[in-house]
Amino acid sequence: MYYDRKLKIFSCTSNPLLAEAIADKIEIPLGNGEIIRFSDGEVSVRIDESVRGSDVYIIQPTCHPSNDNLMELLVMIDALKRASAKRITAVIPYYGYARQDRKTRPRDPITAKLVANLLTVAGTDRILTIDLHAGAIQGFFDIPVDHMTAVPLLAEHFAQKDVKDLVVVSPDMGGVTRARDMAQRLRAPIAIIDKRRPKANVAEIMDIIGDVKGRRAVLVDDIIDTAGTIVLGAQALIERGATQVFACCTHPVFSGPALERLASSCLSEVVVCDTIPLPPEKQLPIIKKCSVASLLAEAIVRIHEDLSISTLFDAT
Fold it and tell me: Is 195 noted as a catalytic residue in this protein?
């Protein structure tokens, strides 16, 4: 059993099952804290144990409802800071607002930077997160950011299936690095879908770069939101001669028409991580889950002991 009374893990309300799984992996109890909501919707936090001098980790993806979950996290950070915690690490498996990372039109906000400022000002000493939509978001923080990837977990899922004639496909140019990492781990070739977005949540497939004919394709992305990109990409791959199409992502946002699109698509399987909780109504038969609990637990222990976490991602 791993035990260090100065290591404490607390959970807000967005993904308590993941927080419990992480604590179980480390073999320590979750911290004794409570999120309180007043009748007017305001959030308060009660910490019912001493955290003085402790190394504290708060598990809270800022997924839907993003604003409520972000506010819970900020208030808990403030409560722990005022209770004299020595170091506070915000463990944010899914970093909400990450897609608002730059100005695309005049007078646009850069909300990913605003959220980084809020977390820092609240008293966060360190950020631990998985597969930011844009790696440059790490530079929005003036505190350390440990940016991990779920690609090894997703690659291991397909490696265990022992699927032959694989080709790993990036659904757009921005995801090539991620696809190349998975392709290296699966010892498979890579293809790229040339896509454009005429407006938000709308995708148009232009062309496919690479040979997919006669192969089983694995589409890999960081987020599946409305599923338009993944479903269109899967259909384009079948039309170009792929014999079967799988999809995988780190963050299953699944908003709007996503579930209807996935259920009626040509996809054989959609593999997702539990960075965002999936309620029963979103658990389609083709959806398979990989847990990031062990990955986050190992990272937390390594950070606590001042060890490197980059070795967790060395490709074999």
Answer: yes
